[in-house]
Specification:
Beta Polymerase, domain 2, DNA polymerase, domain 1, 18 strands, DNA-binding, globular
DNA sequence: GCCGTTTTCGGCCCGACTGTTTTCAGTCG
């Protein structure tokens, strides 16, 4: 609940920022966007701060001053912000929808509205297809092509939401349904339970002796916008955030069968049911039956067991070899959630993070971590104020001092950097400075459009560098926003193995990069994985489990992931890899 | 609209890249 509230305030401030920006208002947009970013990453509840200390308390939040504090207060007390509503009236354009199109920003949105009365993506697509856009100032043929491509991409991702967006909401709904009197169990199943990177709808299984009470509570949730259908065992609704949710209520005795039925993906379920048929059984959401006799239904474990299979963890139920492996008892012992001991990608306010090194360290400690690596951007990523050799040295001194301070707490801060890989595969920091770091991490942030051959050669050259330990977000994709750059993953992974570089499983909600399939291949090739949050704010350490989920989907064990080790062992391992 | 060991007023993050231009606006994060 807490997180959702902050997200909501952050979204509103972001909207303020967008509308101010299209109106070419100077400086205010970045002030609003900054405040939104900070609030989105906060672990404390803004409404709690307001309840306890009023506007003064809000003023104390970094990035929030008198003006924005007033807006937040207005939102908390009245549910809307007058100025935002007025701006929307004056400029009736879906700014967030249009700016989601790659290459379309505030200036272009303003021009498109003023010249062609374009208010949303549908308008834009029509205008582009009629070639009305190319004539405008600063728009040409290529702009039209780019816009069309951007719109197509958005359409492909339509209707699916990020795992990291949906999980907190689903867990929140789960908790609220569980508190309904008479409810025995509630579990979110479906693609969320499998921890798939994007989610099409929320499937919930509940057991109770009083189905109607749960259904009524479900329909009465404030998030419910529309009820498609509702009966004693199944209710389907649309939630206001733009995703459907289904609640299925079964008797306590067939809980396992229902869960099994609603968790596996389509193909997994078909395969499992085929096995049942072969053995003379029938499998449904009500149980495993021989003729009419119930064989198993209470737990998933007993159902799989009766079918001659080991228990298959939800993340693996995708019909990609898990059933054969379960039959010969060859499933991997998956890395447990919560087993990361140190986070090796953390940004701070030295560049584009929004908290100090000390604040991030404290948040990491609170999240149960034993160490973090500070990995701010380097100089060629100018928009983030990337660090050069001098600044890296200065930052190193600050880290030394903090390590002294945290000595009794046995918490360790490592010196590192997210070193930018240049177009030719070289790094933008001299080796002499890199040698002073505890570990060197590299990443691509530009020249996304190189051919597959060029991109692969470029990255492999960086991996070959004798000081490089980890490749961050190896494919550069942003789910639903930007495709991965063209990259020969097989060659890249083989190079990582040869040159002793670990691959990151990045937990940022729209990255999840490497993704499950690549992780699985990496592990097959003996490449080590590192699970990182890519935290830019104290609240982001909570994302680590999202990447652990992807490692699990990639059949990863604890021993495949280097930062499940203690800080000393992890560093020693990375050094040994390089030899 | 926010912020302050250069400032309570006057700055606002330091740049690369693309596609549009014919010297530069707009986007990216």
């Amino acid at each position: 609940m807490a997180v959702l509230h902050n997200q909501r305030i952050a979204r509103l401030l972001n909207e303020m920022s967008e509308y101010l920006e299209v109106q070419d208002v100077p400086f205010k947009p970045s002030a609003y966007a900054r405040a939104a970013g900070i609030i989105a990453g906060m672990t404390d509840e803004v409404t709690d701060i307001y309840d306890q200390n009023g506007k003064k308390g809000l003023d104390g939040i970094p990035g929030v001053g008198k003006g924005i504090a007033e807006k937040i207060e207005e939102y908390i007390t009245t549910g809307s912000i007058k100025e935002l509503e007025q701006m929307k009236k004056k400029f009736p354009v879906n700014v967030s929808e249009l700016s989601a199109v790659q290459g379309v920003g505030p200036k272009k949105i303003a021009a498109l509205y003023k010249k062609l009365n374009i208010k949303n993506c549908a308008d834009l697509e029509r205008a582009v297809r009629a070639h009305k856009v190319a004539g405008l100032a600063h728009f040409g043929k290529k702009s039209e092509e780019q816009i069309l491509k951007g719109i197509e991409f958005l359409k492909k991702g339509r209707g699916r939401m990020l795992l990291g967006t949906v999980v907190p909401l689903a867990q929140d709904i789960e908790a609220r349904l569980r508190s309904v009197p008479g409810v025995a169990r509630v579990t979110v199943a479906g693609s969320i339970r499998r921890r798939q990177e994007t989610i099409g709808d929320i499937d919930i299984v509940a057991t109770t002796a009083h189905p109607k009470r749960v259904m009524d509570a479900f329909i009465a949730l404030p998030e419910v916008e529309h009820v498609y259908s509702s009966g004693p065992t199944k209710t389907m609704v649309r939630l206001s955030i733009g995703i459907d949710a289904d609640l299925r209520v079964v008797k306590k005795d067939c809980y396992g069968a229902a869960l099994q039925y609603f968790t596996g993906d389509k193909q997994h379920n078909i395969e499992v049911r085929k096995i049942a048929i072969k053995k003379g059984y029938k499998l449904s959401e009500y149980g495993l039956f021989k003729e009419k006799k119930l064989i198993a239904a209470k737990t998933e474990e007993e159902i799989y067991k009766k079918l001659g299979l080991a228990y298959i963890p939800p993340e693996l139920r995708t019909a990609s070899g898990e059933i054969e492996a379960a039959r010969r008892n060859g499933l991997p012992d998956l890395i447990p959630y919560g087993s990361i001991r140190g986070d090796l990608q953390v940004q701070t306010n030295w560049t584009d993070g929004n908290a100090s090194i000390e604040e991030m360290a404290k948040a990491a400690m609170n999240a149960g971590l034993e160490y973090i690596a500070i990995t701010d951007h380097t100089q060629s990523l100018a928009m983030t104020g990337g660090l050069d050799e001098k600044k890296l040295a200065r930052q190193g001194k600050e880290i030394d001092a903090l390590n002294k301070k945290f000595k009794q707490k046995k918490f360790h801060i490592l010196k590192s950097a997210e070193v930018n890989i240049m177009k030719d595969g070289s790094l933008d920091i001299f080796d002499a400075a890199l040698k002073k770091l505890d570990l060197v991490c590299v990443a691509v942030h530009s020249h996304f459009a190189l051919s597959e051959k060029e991109q692969t050669e470029r990255i492999i050259r960086a991996l070959k560098h004798p000081l490089v330990n980890i490749l961050f977000h190896p494919t550069g994709r942003r789910i639903g926003r930007r495709e991965a750059y063209a990259l020969d993953m097989e060659s890249t992974l083989r190079a990582a193995k040869e040159y002793g570089v670990a691959m990151e499983a990045n937990a940022s909600t729209d990255r999840l990069d490497l993704k499950d399939a690549h992780i699985r291949r990496a592990i097959e090739l003996g490449v080590n994985i590192v699970v990182n949050s890519d935290a830019h704010a104290p609240g982001h350490f909570a994302n680590l489990d999202l990447a652990i989920a992807q490692v699990r989907r990639g059949w990863g064990k604890k021993s495949d992931v280097l930062n499940t080790l203690s800080v000393d062992k992890c560093l020693a391992f990375l050094k040994r890899l390089k030899k």
